[in-house]
Amino acid sequence: MDKEEKIKVLELLYQSGIVSIPYIFSVLYEKKDACLDIRFKRRKIKQLQRFFNELHDLGIVKKERYGKIVFYKLNEVRKDIISSVIKTKYYSKKSKRSNSLQKLFYIVNSLDNKENLTGRMKNIDILSNTIMLNNDVKAKIINEFLYYIMNINNKIVIFKKTEDKHEITEDGSVILYDQPEYLAYDYRVRFNSARWFKNVNRFIRNAFEEAGKRFKWAVHITLTVNPKKFNNHVETVIKAKKQLNSFLTTLRYQQKKLYEKGLSKHKKLYYLCFTEFGEENGLIHFHLIVFGRRRIADIKNLEEKKWKIGYVKAKQLVYKRGIGWTYPKWKNRPKDFDKRVKKILGNKYSFKFPIKLYFYFSLPKMKKKDDKLEKDDYDGLDPYFLLNYALLFTYNLKYITYSRNILKWNVEPYGIRYIDLPNDNYEFFAVCYEWDLKTTFIGKYSLYDLLFYSDAFIIKSKGG
Fold first, then answer.
1. How far apart are the C-alpha atoms of 161 and 172, rounded to whole Å?
2. 3-93 to CATH, choices 1.10.10.60, 1.10.10.10, 3.40.720.10, 3.40.50.1980
3. pTM for the complete prediction?
C-alpha cells in the first residue's frame, strides 16, 4: 500500500468508527478494472490485513468478530493520533510508533494553529525553536511536565470481563465465580510512581555490584554533542539517538574481535548507558559504562567517524574491595561528581574517602507510602533533576538502557510490574477520568455503578 491509500483508510476509519476489510476494499478499489483480477484482489486484501495488524499493535484499533467477519473498531483514546495524521498527510513506515519523536516533530511543525497544543507537543514546539535552553524555556518545559503529572493522576484504567469464570468439579457440576463486570485501577506511569525511582536505583546498585564480581576493569565513556552542528534542540536528540546506536555497534564489533584474538574472555559487550541533559544548556549527553574493557583504543577515530556530532571522553575504572568501582586516581573523577552526589546523599556525603560510583548515576529518592506521586512531591526536587525528568518525558526517552547480557547476572529489570488481573477473562476497556464515569452509560446503568476498584496499579509501558 502506498501513502495515499493508507491515508484514505485512516479517513474511512475516522469517519465510520468501525470498518471491515471487505468494506474498505469495496470503497477503494470497486471502480478500478484491476479489481476483477483475483491476484490483484488477494494482494490488496493481504496489504490491508497487514496494515490493520500494524494499527492493532499500536493500540489504535480493536478487533471484534461478528460471525466470520472481523471488524476493526477505532480506539477513542488514540483518536487524536488519527486526526493529526489525516491533517498532515504524514504516515511513515520508519516511525510506526504512535509517539515517535520524528513523527511528532513533523506534525508540530506542519500545524498552522499551535495555540491548543499541550503536553509533549507543546514542549516539542518550544524546543524546535531553540537549541541552548535558557531559564525561561526550562521553566515552560517543567511546568508542562508538572501539569502532565497532575493530569494523569486523575485517570483510571478500566478492564471489562469477557466471559464468566467457572470451574468443573469431579462430579461434573459447574461452579460459577461471582466477578464484577468491570475493574478499575489507578493509572501509573514511571513519573507518578515512587516505586519506579526505587527500582531504578536498586537496578543500578545491583548491576555495579554484580559487575564487580566478574570484572576488574571498566571504562567510563562520556558522549556529548556540539550545538554548532544542529539547528534546534529536537534535532540534537534525534541525531544523538541514531549515533549512539552506531557507536555501540562499533564497540560490539571491537569486543568480538578482541575475543577472537584471545585478548578478552568475553565475546559479548556488557554496558550501562545513562541519558542525561546538561544543567546549564540542557543539551543531551550519554554516560556509557563498558565493563570488562581496560581502555578504548583510538578514541579520536571513534569521535570523528562513529560519533561525529560532538566529543568523546574516556576514563578508566577499577574495582576495589570495600570501595567498589572507582577511578584509579580519585582526582580523575568527573568535575560535577561531588556536587551531584551531594544532591542525592545530602549530609551523608563525605569528601574524605572515595564514594561508590553508582551513587553518581542514581536518582533522588521519592518516598511515598501509597506509591502515588503528586505534583507537590516534585516541589522540593533539585532543578537539575526536575529538568531531566521533564525532557525525558518530552522526548519519551529511557533514563537507563543496558545490554541484555546483564540480566543473566540475576539482576531484575527496573520496570514497574503490570497489574495482576484476577484471571485472563478480562480485557482492556478504556482509560478515562474518574469524573467522566457517571456520564458514561452502558445499558441502564452508568459505568460508575458497575465498577469495582482495586489498589493495584498499571503502567503505560515498561522501562525507564
1. 25
2. 1.10.10.10
3. 0.73
